[in-house]
Amino acid sequence: MRFPIRGSWLKAIAFLGLAVAFMIGGISVFHKRLIHNRNALWQIVDGRCRVDHLHAPCTEYDAQQGFALLKDIKGRGQYLLIPTQKTLGIEAASLLKPDTPNYFLQAWLKRSYVEKRYGFKIPDQDLALAINSISGRSQDQLHIHIDCLTAYTRAKLDQNMFGSEWSDISLYGHLYRAKRISSLTPSPFQDLAEPEDMGKHTLVVTPAAQGGFILLDDQARALDWGAGEELQDHQCRLDNPKYQRTSGNGRL
């Protein structure tokens, strides 16, 4: 004897199981978003480093120059340069004011900490500074990532001769525009052509082979979160020119 209803019941049960699984997964993601603290960096810098007599856990805290330096929990040698004043991120209007500290320059001057942390010599050309867009970050206090550049990115950049005007380059499937600047003064924030849309941008700075620096700019769009941090290697694998870290748009 056949029981044709049995198959239907099995399908219904399977469908119900999938629905419950998706519901639990959705609740889990929502819960993580609720408990995620987007002010964690600011609370560390202002609530701990500022008041501690040794400025722990910050490596440096310079109220006069307006920045703190903090070893990131992500990566072997990555550091973060963070303003000591509340500054949301790349979209902050204060970044375009002439009296605002030059955070990119300050970050570059602190690059030796990265090398010390890894324990081996790192040429300047293999280092990079990066700041993510609003979509590409998980913290609402401005911070510049200081770490190694991926060998893949270095090789791609060295295949091009960038001038003082913007030109396009594809990196990890994302369309960046790049140009060469002679120095980090004035601040690279001043080089953006659309200050009213600053929050969509991500900026990456690394030395140019012919002198000066390469400024890379991408914008958050569709599946591109505008996280220039993707061009950094938080394990600093300098000896593998074919190394490509698949962009997961990991955000901080």
Report mean pLDDT, rounded to a whole number: 85
| Overall outline | globular
Spans of at least 5 consecutive residues with low confidence: 1-6, 17-34, 243-252
Distance between the ends: 62 Å
**Biggest beta sheet attributes:** 10 strands, antiparallel
Taken as a percent bin, the fraction of beta residues is 15-25%
Quantity of strands, as a count:
10
In DSSP terms, counting alpha (H) and pi (I) runs of 4 or more, how many helices?
Answer: 5
Order of helices and strands: HHEEEHHEEHEEEEE
User: What's the helical proportion of residues?
Assistant: 25-40%
Assign the structural class, choosing from mainly alpha, mainly beta, alpha/beta, alpha+beta, or little secondary structure: alpha+beta
Rounded to an integer in angstroms, the radius of gyration calculated over CA atoms is 22 Å
**Oligomer class:** single chain
